[in-house]
Each structure stands twice: as structure tokens, then as C-alpha cells.
């Protein structure tokens, strides 16, 4: 298990199946237009304001926003204002080249769409067999049954509340909105709500082997 504080940043994993990052983009940072060939991407924004653009659609998003960008969708990113943008992202699968930049190949079959959602339990995230994601919430005193994903990797990004995650013989305390936990393939785990309010988190699951 890996426990990350998004305020400090860090790379979770980088495998053929996916790559993920968690951390800050500093004020003035930007990414020029690019897309990911055959790979979908989700961004979850923890703090700060980011502008993400797809074609003529440019949106400013902040804490609690989730953006889903399908494969072959050129997009730009830039921080807005004088505060860092703290984020969590997953791209799946992780294919070379990881980024395709202008000029775009005429036969790339490019798309021009993105989905912007806000963190709330039950929100449908339009992912597919490359990646599954959803927001989940549980009340005070909740303890999950022991989970184990034999052929997938899992992430838990805590949006609100306080909890505890136990996996691989290790226990960590987590709290929203800056805690994120990565569970390796096959590790048994348990999540508990240790606070007095609702525990809300983003759950992301990626198959360990992708074609």
C-alpha cells in the first residue's frame, strides 16, 4: 500500500496498464495541446483552479471537480491564479508515445469532448473496461468487508471525512481532501470511517493487464 499526501505530490505507479500521478501544478504551469492515443484520462481536482480546454470548450474547474477525457481527445491544461493546483490523475492504458502533440495525424480519429462532474456519492463517471471509477460515501461507524482485487489495481482518493485503511499488514490514517491510497494487485484491504461525519471518496480501478 502507498499513502500519498497530495500537497506533497508523488508518482503512484507507472506500468504498461496505466500511469497515475498525484501532486501540485505550480502557478503559471501549463500543458500544450495533446492527446493520448488509445488511452482515457481522468483528473480529480483537490485544490486550486485549473482551466482545461477541449477545442473551443474551455472550463475552469476547482476543488471537487472530476474531468473525464476520452482517448484521442486533444486537450490543454493551465493553472489559474496564484495558488498551486493539487490533483490526482490516471491514464489507462499507458501506451507509447504517452503524449501526441501537434501537428496531429489526419487519420488519428480525433474527438472533441470531455465530461465535467462534481464529487458526490452516486455520480456516474462514464468510464469503460480500461478504467472504472465512482464516488462512494459511508456514514459514521462504517467498516468495509475485506476487499481483494486479484487482477486490478485500486486507488482511493478521500474527498471528505476521516478514516483508516489497512492493507498488507499496514494501517494508515486518511482524511479528505488530500489523502490518496494505492492498493497493489491482490492485496487484501479494509476501509473504516473513523470520523463523526460522512466518509466520501473517489474509487478508481484499472485492470493490471490490458490489450
Automatic annotation (TrEMBL):
SUPFAM superfamilies linked to this entry: RmlC-like cupins
Gene3D superfamilies according to UniProt: Jelly Rolls
Residue stretches spanning the membrane: none
Domain (Cupin type-2): residue spans on this chain: 26-90, 140-204
Name of the molecule in the record: Cupin type-2 domain-containing protein
Organism: Handelsmanbacteria sp. (strain RIFCSPLOWO2_12_FULL_64_10)
Amino acid at each position: 500500500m502507498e499513502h500519498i499526501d497530495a500537497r506533497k505530490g508523488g508518482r503512484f505507479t507507472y506500468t504498461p496498464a496505466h500511469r497515475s500521478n498525484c501532486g501540485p501544478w505550480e502557478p503559471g504551469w501549463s500543458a500544450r495541446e495533446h492527446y493520448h492515443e488509445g488511452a482515457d484520462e481522468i483528473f480529480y481536482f483537490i485544490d486550486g483552479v485549473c482551466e482545461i480546454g477541449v477545442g473551443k470548450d474551455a472550463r475552469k474547474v476547482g476543488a471537487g471537480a472530476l474531468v473525464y477525457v476520452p482517448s484521442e481527445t486533444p486537450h490543454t491544461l493551465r493553472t489559474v491564479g496564484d495558488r498551486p493546483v493539487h490533483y490526482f490523475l490516471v491514464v489507462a492504458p499507458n501506451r507509447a508515445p504517452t503524449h501526441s502533440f501537434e501537428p496531429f495525424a489526419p487519420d488519428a480519429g480525433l474527438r472533441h469532448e470531455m465530461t465535467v462532474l462534481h464529487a458526490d456519492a452516486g455520480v456516474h463517471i462514464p468510464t469503460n473496461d480500461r478504467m472504472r471509477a465512482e464516488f462512494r460515501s459511508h456514514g459514521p461507524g462504517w467498516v468495509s468487508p475485506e476487499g481483494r482485487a486479484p487482477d486490478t489495481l485500486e486507488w482511493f482518493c478521500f474527498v471528505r471525512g476521516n478514516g483508516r485503511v489497512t492493507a498488507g499488514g499496514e494501517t494508515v490514517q486518511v482524511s479528505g481532501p488530500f489523502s490518496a491510497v494505492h492498493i497493489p494487485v491482490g492485496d487484501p484491504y479494509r476501509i473504516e470511517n473513523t470520523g463523526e461525519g460522512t466518509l466520501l471518496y473517489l474509487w478508481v480501478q484499472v485492470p493490471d493487464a490490458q490489450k
